[in-house]
Amino acid sequence: MIQGRPSTTALRAATYRAHHQVLDQPLVFDDPLAVKILSPLGPLKLPPRTSPVRAWAAARGRFAEDALHAARSRGCTQYVILGAGLDTFAYRHAGSVLPVFEVDHPDTQAWKRSLLEQAGIAAPPALTYVAVDFARQSLVPELARSGFRPDEPAFFSWLGVTPYLHESAVWETIAAIRGLHPRNEIVFDYLVARSELSWRSRLAHRVIEWYVARLGEPLRFLSAPPAIRTHLEQIGFATVEDLDCPALNERYFRNRPDRLRIAGRIARLVHARA
Ligand SMILES: C[S@@+](CC[C@H](N)C(=O)[O-])C[C@H]1O[C@@H](n2cnc3c(N)ncnc32)[C@H](O)[C@@H]1O
Question: pTM of the entire structure?
Fold first, then answer.
């Protein structure tokens, strides 16, 4: 991230979700506030074509909220959204008693709060903002200061963030989450190491790398799927799912007339619990 500026990739991800609401039927990820939260930035510009990145943004939002739903039925009583960006879960469930903690870089969080205010979207009582720079601060003390209950199981989502962190920060954060409570669960996404990819996917990787570096958010963390599983096991998490793009297409985009789907195999979505 560029110091003093909100995350540009957070704006990109939110824009893909807004495009999905307007352009795609049926919806994979139903987010009635996705357009409204961006309204202070002016009229939404719509792209001419279906985009595989839009499909990815929709799939990961849906995957996380489906896993949250299942985790709640297993007794998780808190939801922590790490690197929340312009996520609207808390505002879509404003009447819910589920405590939600939005953790994000202070610059992105301040920008989001100003967008929410301008858009007339109120922060619900069950929501707490926690400003954390993962590159410099540890998650747990900041959460503890914010009313998070370490004695209660929690569900964590961490979408679109690991690629921008150093590997040590990724695993320290996941280990800290595991250490908080034995019934904690996490969903996160990661970019697949180039050594695992076809030449075509490697090319797509290079394009993304160049693109996000230009936005001031260079890629730092990539991993092979077996290494993810091994690290999670060492930490004490079992991998419930580690889905590649074809598996996500099968789950969320089968038989769509508009051909919306994720391309390649460069990213994966993980759900882990003890
Ligand atoms: C691609 S956006 C994803 C936002 C949101 N999770 C989504 O899916 O729309 C990346 C997010 O990671 C956050 N982030 C990046 N580096 C960070 C850091 N060092 N500390 C805290 N948050 C960071 C950004 O502020 C941004 O909200």
Answer: 0.96
